[in-house]
């Protein structure tokens, strides 16, 4: 049962697509305050688990910490942080009472989940304008499914996007990209995509490419396609200010950029230097920006990643002025009167300064809305711009989109990657724990920078991370400029990498099938164990293991020098390992705790009792996966409903695309 409560005059985020009548009065849960902002306070039972909150720090059970939905470009995802790039305001309290809440509020909102007081959940925002959805259900899993129904179907990417992709910030010219392609193809390492980071552009201008580095861009894209590789360019949230640059000029002329209170276009420095932010909340500007992607689709491009769309601000004009004034004051007064620390304070405050977010406006149907009130929608609406334009311009085929910043609602237009993680073992585990929470909020096409973005990776970390990435819909190796080379052919013997990547392609029929079923039935692809085994008292403790679909459990190794790991089986399962010689080992393990050996070059999974899954022969790219080689592994007598389609068109249909196979 879903109830909708409206407080004040909320901004219509269009996160929820279902028409739900407003319930009068106040929800039966929690104490609500609307004086001087919004507050919601609810006692938590001793045993209550709190699920949800999507992309976030910490574990699957969110209890015991403070989370703040405040889309932030912060590349240090350490445990002390409370905000990452997204705002996913859906959570479930699972105990004696089972209730879900979606706080549809696009400004900064705080979720104190037993942080100040271990037994109280407090949600608070500066304004008392929001829509609160309250959902009851028999289990937490039921509540998630109910919620997913009201927010609309999750985004479906083209099938090639389920292949493996290589990325690096620093590839510049077509020669660089061909060298990466060769590194993979010559070593017979599977690959479907190479990502193009900002250096492919002319001076970091969206929808351009560097003419010196690409003699003939469409020809370059075509040549890559002949190697069965798609190039996936990045698009950033800010448009460079430069006379003669058509995107800039059109934006200025038509008032498509965010404005200051005085009507001038707001200016913020990001990678290209000074930029304007397209006003994605203005439908005309959204349509215009979305259509700009056509410059690249016309050149043969079939997918994009949207970045810097929190929006990230390195500094604003106003911020630079504040620093200048502080510096002038410092120079013209004595150290005692005005310390150099004051200058440092201003310098430290430059990036993503809340004062800047309060200083520009969106034009929503003629009404000026201050950005800070709708801050968390920017990435959502940027990706919506692209998704809507492509639905119109490319009705026959799917285009790949994923974004860094997001709000619930964006899950209908694209996936997300989890931003600038680091080459740390702890981030492999963080990556694992985020997956089911993201799914609960509708985001199915998800993945982290495998191997880690910041810092230098190591061979073992990359191999272990890839062994998790084998199961994430988005499987991409990406790293920052200046870090150690991270392509799979850069670590000497490529044999181990080939093998791990091949497992992805062997499992592709299963991964694609489960993804499509989850998307088409508003279900989860990744589930916490406790959703599948609600009666099992230990299941909620096993946060480092996940269920995929209805058939398998994964338990990746995330510890340096480990030769295996402890694993908990809520029921008897078949322990399956894809071994480096291409064979598959299977061993029945009883319910309970086990230590299992897993070598660096092995990919483990567990098949649930009585079930089976399809595997194909290895392939070097998605189109080469041969359906005739599909066979089942698992329990004799098990059957599996295999979904497959052309992977390109927008015709998805469970009825006609499922066939039952078995062993
Ligand atoms: C941001 C992105 C990262 C990208 C870099 C350069 O940090 O999160 O993925 O490589 O910008 O574009």
User: Low-confidence parts lasting 5 or more residues at pLDDT below 50?
Assistant: none
Portion in helices: 10-25%
Bound molecules: alpha-D-glucopyranose
Assembly type of the chains comes to single chain
The tally of beta strands, per DSSP, is 39
Q: Please indicate the percent range of residues in DSSP E strands (runs of 2 or more).
A: 25-35%
- The structure class reads alpha+beta
Question: Major sheet: size, sense and barrel closure?
Answer: 9 strands, parallel
- Apparent shape: globular
- Count of DSSP H/I helices: 16
What's the arrangement of strands in the largest beta sheet?
25-24-22-18-14-13-12-27-26
Radius of gyration: 25 Å
Query: What is the residue-averaged pLDDT?
Result: 98
Distance linking N and C termini = 40 Å
Can you put this structure into words, describing what you see?
With 663 residues, the chain is an alpha+beta fold. Helix content is 24%, strand content 25%. The strands form ten sheets. The chain has a nine-stranded parallel beta sheet with strand order 25-24-22-18-14-13-12-27-26. The chain has a six-stranded antiparallel beta sheet with strand order 28-29-30-35-32-33. Strands 1-11-8-7-4 form a five-stranded antiparallel beta sheet. Helix 5 packs across helix 10 (378-393). It starts with a strand and ends with a strand.
Quick summary of this structure?
The protein is an alpha+beta fold. Residues 169, 197-198, 234, 307, 404, 419-420, 478 line the site of alpha-D-glucopyranose.
